[in-house]
Amino acid sequence: MQKRALVVGLGIAGMSAAIGLRRAGWTPVVVERAAERRTGGYFIFLFPEGVQAAADLGIADHLHTRNPDWRPGGNSWSVDRRGRRKPALGLLDVPSGQAAVLRGDIEAALWQSISGDGTGDSVEVRFATTPVEITEGTDGVQVLLEDAGTGKQYREDFDLVVGADGMRSSMRRMMFGPDEDYMVNWKAMICAFQLKEQVPTYQESDSIIVARPRRAMWVFGLDDHAPCAWLTYRTEDIPDRFAGESIEQVRAVFAGMEDDPVVRHVLDSLEQAPEHVFDSIHQVKMPRWSAGRVVLVGDAAWCMNTYSAMGSSSSLRGGAALGVALRENPDDLAAALNSWEKGLRPYITRQQRSARMKQQRFVPSNRAVDVLRSVVLEAIRKIVHRRMTARFAASAAPVPSVTAR
Fold first, then answer.
1. Strand 76-79 and strand 207-212: pairing?
2. Given CA atoms 313, 289, 293, 332 in this order, what sign does their dihedral have?
C-alpha cells in the first residue's frame, strides 16, 4: 500500500517536499491556509545548491531566471553621502553560478510540477485548510483538519506529516513548543517590494546600493522585469509588525536621506506599490527537525534569514534530499529522517553562521565597519572586473577565417 504524507504549506519548501515525496513513491497531500495560490514575490538569489536541487526535483526546465547581461563597466552602482555614484560589487557581479529570480518564478516552476505538468500526475492540494490537532500512533498519524470556508472539521490518517509553513510555523508551535524556544531575534527589519519603474538616470538592469551604518537600500535590476527594492535596517526595538503603518516606520528610518534621488524614488515607489513585505528578521535554530512521524522543512525548521540569501536554495535542497532519504530507506521512516538530517544539517549550520558576515555587507553595523566594508568590496570588485572584462573581450573577439589554399 502506498504511503501518504500530509504537507502543510504551499510555499517553496512545501512544494519541494511534495515533489520529493512523490519521486520517492509516496502520495503527498498539501494543505494551504490561504484560499488560493500566492503569486509574485520579491527578488531572491538561487545559488548553485538551489539550481542543482531544482534539477534534482525535475523543475529546472520550467524555472525562469532573470540575470541581467553583464557589460563592461558593470551593472551595479554604489551611491555615497554626496549622491555620487561609483561602480560597485553587486551580488550578481561575481561569476559563481547563482541565478536572479523572483520568489514567484520558483513557485511557478514547482506548481507546474505538482499540478501535473500535462502528465496527469498531480498532487492533491486543499486550499483554506489547516491542521488543528495531530495525534501520533504506532502505525501512523491522525490529523484533525479544518476547512476555513465551511468550518467543517474532519480526521484523516497519514504516515508522515511535513511542516513547511514558514518562520512563524504553527506546526512547530503545535509539535515542538513556542516560538521563543527556537527563534533568534536579529534586531533588524526588512521591507521588500517591486518598483513600477527604475530609478531615473539608471539603466533598467542596473542595481543600486545606498548603504549607511544601520540602514541600507538596495535596488536589484533584473532582465525582463521591473527592478525590486530591498530595504533593511537595524533596530534595538523591534516593533510589532502590525502596530502602526509600515510605510511610516520605513520613512522614519530613512529620514534625512530623502535629498538623494535614489532614496526619494524608492520611498515614493513604496507609497504606490500594491503590496510589500515588512517583517522582522530572525533565525530559527532547532536541535532536531523531526519528532516521530512529524518533520519540519524550510524556514519552519532552519530559517537562515534574508541576509543569508540561501532560504530558497535550502528549501529546494531540503525537499529534494527528503525524497532521496525516503527512497533509500523505504521501510524505515526513522532511519530515513535521521539520514536526511545528518546529510543536510552541516550545510544549514554553515549557512546560518555565514549570515552574520553577510549582514555586514547588506547593512553595516557602524561607521568603521562601513569604511572597512567599502575598501574590501572595492578591492574584490576590481579583481572581478578585470576577469570579467577579459572574458567579455575574448567572447566578443571575431573568429579568424580560414582560407583554403
1. parallel
2. positive
The three cell numbers locating residue 224: 525582463
Query: What is d(CA 229, CA 221) in angstroms, rounded to the nearest whole number?
Result: 9
Cβ partners under 8 Å of residue 396, min gap 6: none
Q: Amino acid identity, residue 20?
A: G
- Where are the CATH 3.50.50.60 domain residues in the chain? 4-65+100-183+283-359
Would strands 4-8 and 27-32 be described as parallel, antiparallel, or unpaired? parallel
Q: Which residues of the chain are in CATH 3.30.9 domains?
A: 76-98+185-281+363-380
- CATH architecture of structural domain 76-98+185-281+363-380: 2-Layer Sandwich (3.30)
Q: What is the pLDDT along the chain (405 residues), one digit of tens a residue?
A: 789 999 999 999 999 999 999 999 999 999 999 999 988 788 888 888 999 999 999 999 999 888 777 666 668 999 999 889 999 988 776 656 678 888 999 999 999 999 986 566 799 999 999 999 999 988 899 999 999 989 999 999 999 999 999 999 999 999 999 999 999 999 999 999 999 999 999 998 899 999 999 999 999 998 888 999 999 999 988 766 566 789 999 999 999 998 899 999 999 999 999 999 999 999 999 999 999 999 999 999 999 999 998 999 999 999 999 999 999 999 999 999 999 999 999 999 999 999 999 999 999 999 999 999 889 888 888 887 787 777 767 766 664 554 443
Query: 4-65+100-183+283-359 domain in CATH 3.50.50.60?
Result: yes
